[in-house]
Amino acid sequence: QVQLVESGGGLVQAGGSLRLSCAASGLTFSNYAWGWFRQAPGKEREFVCGISWSGGSTYYADSVKDRFTISRDHAKNMVYLQMNSLKPDDTAVYYCAAAFRSGKYEYWGQGTQVTVSS
């Protein structure tokens, strides 16, 4: 079955950096678009960034543009989220998600907690 497993979360001071990883299995990695979402306490889950299945396009929420970078490694079936200049507002559980080609996100990981202290 399809499994997405996130790692790399933790506690960091404001201004610091973290890199999240998402290990994918049970699917043909190159056929999927990938995204990162987050959910803060008391808030709805929101889109953070995504990369198209072809890899030719990336998308970012305005709140993270120029600070976060999504990337993927086909050989390792891995998706990454490099987060720089972290702010307390970035505190949330971060989820990796997969969408077949241009479809809706259908597979989700269990999430990894990111906490940014001021």
Q: Distance between termini?
A: 40 Å
Number of helices: 0
| Whole-number mean pLDDT | 97
Helix content: under 10%
Summarize the biggest pleated sheet: 7 strands, mixed
Rg calculated over all Cα atoms: 13 Å
**Strand/helix succession:** EEEEEEEEEEE
Total number of beta strands: 11
- Low-pLDDT runs of 5+ residues are none
Structural class: mainly beta
**Which word captures the global form?**
globular
Estimate what percentage of residues fall within beta strands. over 45%
Highlighted features:
single chain, 118 residues, mainly beta, 7-stranded mixed β-sheet, 4-stranded antiparallel β-sheet, 11 strands, 55% strand
How are the elements arranged and paired?
Layout: E1 3-7, E2 10-13, E3 18-25, E4 32-39, E5 46-51, E6 58-60, E7 68-73, E8 78-83, E9 92-100, E10 105-108, E11 112-117
Parallel strand pairs: 2-11
Antiparallel strand pairs: 1-3, 3-8, 4-5, 4-9, 5-6, 7-8, 9-10, 9-11
Overview of the molecule:
- The protein has 118 residues and is an all-beta fold.
- Helices cover 0% and strands 55% of the residues.
- The protein is globular.
How would you concisely characterize the structure shown here?
This protein is mainly beta and 118 residues long. 0% of the residues lie in helices and 55% in strands.
